[in-house]
Amino acid sequence: MRKREQKFRKSMQIKLLLLFAFVLLLLILLIIRIAWINIKSGDAYAKQVLSQQTYDSRAVPYRRGEIQDRNGNLLAKSEKVYNVVLDCKAVNSNDDYVEPTIQVVSDQLGLDTAEIREIVSSEQTRDSRYQVVKKGLSLEEVQKFEDYTDTGEDRKDLSDSQREWLQNVQGVWFEEDYIRNYPLGSLACTVIGFSNRLNDGISGLEAYYSDTLNGVNGRQYGYLNEKLELQENIIEPENGSSIVTTIDVNVQQVVEKYIAELEQQNKNGPQPTTKGRASANTAIVVANPNNGEILAMATDRVFDLNDPQNLSGWVTKKEQSSMTEEQKTEALNKLWYNYCVSEAFELGSTYKPIVVSSALDAGSIDSNFAVTCIGYLQPVIEEDPINCTSVHGAESLGDILKNSCNPGMMTIAMKMGIDKFCEYQSVFGFGRKTGIDLPNENSGTLDDENTMGIIELCTYSFGQGFTATMLQELSAFCADVNGGYLYQPHVVKQIVGDNGEVLKTIEPLVVGQPVSTKTSGMIRQYLETVVSDDGTAKDAQIAGYRIGGKTGTAEKLPRNNGKYIVSYICAVPIDDPQVVVYGVIDEANVDDQEHAGTYIRGAITGILKEILPYLGVYPSGDITEVERADLGMKVERETEETEEMEVQYVYDEYGNLMYDETTWQPLTELVPVEKETEEAEEAGNVQEDVWTGGDSDGDVGNGYESQEEGSAENVFGVG
Question: I need a surface site. Which of 29, 248, 689, 708 has the fewest CB within 10 A?
């Protein structure tokens, strides 16, 4: 079948042309109409569009919460400052604005004129509405600038030309910001930590509670209304919450003072590995044993929280100049390191009271337990004997702690057995984190029932062979003396809202009761003999106070390298403990590290003398006026004017004793110290203990000579 041919007829062509002409006419008419609208009402429509467009939007910063000590003293706060912002588009909107703005901004804010001119005129920034040209101005600096540029009627000092000049300063405004400030500088630096400009907590409480301290930024929106006037809408920021710590500034200052004194005393010692430092590490913690609150925590790592990256005092300028970024980061991490929380080490003999209480509570021994120390014990025939520091002879259970006798402790551990020993280590919290509210806590390392042998059991009994942190030992010791209750240590007691309302109170948390109240009472009696009798902490007595404590010396790995960690922990008053202090010196920079325990005991004794009266813990025994003055307590003395005059004290802003108002003399000069007693004067001789070397603890041995006229007697003890 033949296909029909389609033809584009002339009539169809005419219709198509007419349709095209019609559409073209419509387009012409539409263009004419648009042109007419633009001429007639263009401005009105332009304003309507602009009114719906965002002119400016910026974050309004929140204020990070404060950190306070338990008495309300500020440890960290965020101070309001101002950033200078330049609206380059506004400046360039009129040629008359450019020079006055550049000159005034440069002169009044101390900025480089060429740099400001470059920002205003550069192709990249000339149309920018937001260029920060200076940060961190105080309110006073902002007010000074605004007063200078004020052209109000009260400025009678301005000529017409000056007024016109200042009126042409345009496009300059100030935005609020905050900077973190630490009013007390380096105090409690490893505990408080610091944050950066972005409000990220880097270390310490600033890091652990960063989310709590931070708030939520607000937002400021700018837009143009129908009259092309700038309108603003502000969503207010939500400020961060504050934290109230358990730290007491007064106690913290005392602790840091004595650590600094140790540093000065031994920084020029002979040890090459700690050259220029008193030790590899020194740390002291003060706690309330009845609720887990940390009153003070300090190390020898001291840095300014307002300038935390300053290595001055730790690294010489020459060393810093040659440091790579990686080396500098490593040095800073060492500086910010909190030894009390993050370092696990062998405890030494401070662990012995934990073992004794565990054995008593488990029923493995009782109060009648006794041993005879022959100077060593050989727990495994195939192995070498483990030596003691002396031949102690017959010893009661209390004598074992007082003398810090290693064979006695090994015997106790073997009576417990491996399973029971490991069980009580776990119950006391060793081998796991305490849960303190500080970052980077270490859990330590120890064997369990499957990996511990007889030799490990024996060395564990005197605190060697496993590692633990200061916090683990502190918590366990507190449980040993407070009636048997193991508290979780903590450094924050309250979280407070922006308006001062208490949002949360951190209550004391009992995580267990490792031993009974009866066992705890027995341990307190034994610990008192360590200090009050001829025990290893005899030099740590304080007149009028009943103190119970334990010394420790741990030989570091590899053995026989001459490196030791010495320590001392004590509770006051031991019959009703209110304060526990624990101090550690790692590799003291002295000739004989093994016998350096006297340094940490001396520091802790000095700390206790200052803080006990302040904390309301007073002597329970009779003490002389001289001893009262030594404790910083009020005394009565005779003067020319009156037979009795009560000494008045002046305190600094943190409650520290400063001066006697009566004479305006330093407190330390109030009362002369009498060297001899009446009994000594009558006898014609003075008796005093003279240190003859040896350690304060039973891992390595010690010795005193009791010197009287014409006689000398060596008394050896361990502990």
Answer: 29
